[in-house]
Design a protein that fits this description.
Blueprint: H1 8-11, E1 16-18, E2 21-22, H2 23-42, H3 51-67, E3 70-71, E4 74-75, H4 76-88, H5 113-121, H6 134-145, E5 151-155, E6 161-165
Antiparallel strand pairs: 1-2, 3-4, 5-6
Helix pairs in contact: 2-3
Length: about 170
Amino acid sequence: MKVAVVPAQITSVEDKIAGNLGISQLILLIAPVFTSSALFIAIPPFMAAPVYKIVLIAVITLVFCISAIRIKGKILLHWAIIILRYNTRPKYFVYNKNDAYLRTAIQTEPKDTKEKAKKAEKPKPVFALPQFQTHDRVEFEAIVANPKAKLHFKMNKKGVLDVHISEIK
């Protein structure tokens, strides 16, 4: 069987069915006929024409006709879908290379009880934060706010934040 590659310029052009109307525009212009007939039959009073049915059918027809308008080569409905997708997408993406999504989980079990006992014996050290009185906190804030004090923040090799005040006047 012979296979041919179709250029993108040919596939991106929409066929014109009637005048300048494409198939999607014709579907959008024919859809109100079917929806309004379904509403006319389904909503009580059945097979009657009260004012609310006529108003509802007119609004539906107006929405479909407006969505069939073509702007810059695209139907207004397509523009509305593009804007809706843009507005509903997440605003922020936080990349985490340690994410476990779609990764195979490899769990290793200790082979003997000695390894389990060693793991159980070594709890991680928990550092208690020092508790300061209110007047000490006020003094610390005054030192930090003082532009003459030389305050330095450094991260050491273990990842701990070191704070150094070298000069207070």
